[in-house]
Each structure stands twice: as structure tokens, then as C-alpha cells.
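Appendix B. Raw example, untouched.
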Amino acid sequence: MHGTLAPEALKHSRWRKNLMWYLGQSKALTRASCVIATCETEYEDIRRVIRNVPVAIIPHGYDAPETLADVEMPSRRRVLYLGRIHPIKGIYNLIEAWAAIEKRFPDWELHMVGPGRPEHLHETQRQIASKGLTRAILREAVYGEQKSREYLQSEVYVLPSFSENFAMTVAEALGHETPAIVSKGAPWKRIEEQKCGWWIDIGVDPLVAALEQACNSSPATLSAMGKLGRAWVSDEFCWNKIAVQFRDVYSWVCELGPVPNFARTI
């Protein structure tokens, strides 16, 4: 069985959050008329520290591209991780999982694209080399049209993170018709309900299982999943809808409207 590589960085992140809370956030939150959470997980985190302040759950907004550019697909099918190269993102678990399946899927390759501190980039490259991987490729960050092209040239997006408050890259991937494998460190439970990806436990073994399922899927199957994902995020996270939700919260707080159905007062 494969183990879970728990990053030391996660401990430091929690320490920093606790310090920020005690230095100032506690006063700001407890005096608020309403607190905005981006997801159910964030709501639960808020409720653990404050109980008597209303919380409204409004996701980050994302407008999917109106049209998707035609791109030339690479010679090998591609799994993409796009984001910060950092231990808290589950990068080392991803390398471990890819090492377990690479030889069985010669038509696939893994691309890890993003910025990172030199020590994290070096460690990631060292782990790739230590596993003898030939189709796990670490690449520098891309932006704008180049980033859009990365999603379009990939058949699967993967985010194996230990902790995320929203994970905008998942919305971006789905908006480009790329189904996603997302760990439960990110609040994307509905991805399976919408039939556009996999929401998996944190760790190497769940990653192996999801990657196997994805890499065994036909291009047509993954394309159909991607279309469902694009339709979902285009409706659920569009800025017009998010703006209306914010308007309703502000109206309620100013006693100009009723309590929105996405606000929780207890």
C-alpha cells in the first residue's frame, strides 16, 4: 500500500493562521454583521471559532470563456497539474501515484506547470528523477492564453492538495471542458454529482485509483465529462449570479430585504 506524504508546510500554515486569528481576525469577525464563506468547508471552519455571527456561503465568481480555441492536441494524452509547486498542494503524492501507473499507460504523460520556490522546484525534480519517471514533466508557470491552452491540451486536470479554500484552477479546468480529479482538501464535492470528475480522499492510494480510472477512459468519455463540467461552472459560478447574491446579502444586512436562502444565522 502507498502512504500519504503529509507536508511539514501544512503545520506551518496552521500556525500562521492561528497567529493571524489571535492578532486581529478574531475582533474583525466577531464584530461583523455577516461573514462570507466561499464554500461549506470554509463555513465549518468559521463556525468552529465564531458561533453568533451570520454566515453567507457565496462561491468565488468565474466566467468561463465564451468560446474555446481550437488547439492542436499533443502526441500523448495528458494529465495536467497547474498551480503553485508547493508541498501543501500534494505534489509529492502526485509523483508517487504517477510512479505507480506510468508504465501501464504509455500513451499518457503528466505535466506539472507552475511557479515555486527554488527549493520546492528542486525537490520536485529530485523526486521525479528518483522514481525514474520519463513522462512526468515539470514546467514553468504560464499565464493568459498560454494557460488556457494548457487546459485545452489536457484531457484530465488533477489537484491533490492538502488544503484549499476554493481552488480556482478547478473552475478554470472545468470551464475549458477538462474533467478534474480533486482531493477532499478542496471543497469540490459536487464535482461527482455533476459527473464531471472525481472527488477523492487525500493520499496516494486514492490518487492512483482515480488516475487509473481516468487514463482508462476513452477520449469521448472524458470529453463528455468536460462538457458537463463547463455547463455546470458556467451556470453556478458566473459573476452575474454571484453579484446578485452579494446584493441580496448587503440588502439584508442593511435591513432592506429578507434573509437570503444561502445565509445561515445560527
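End of appendix B.
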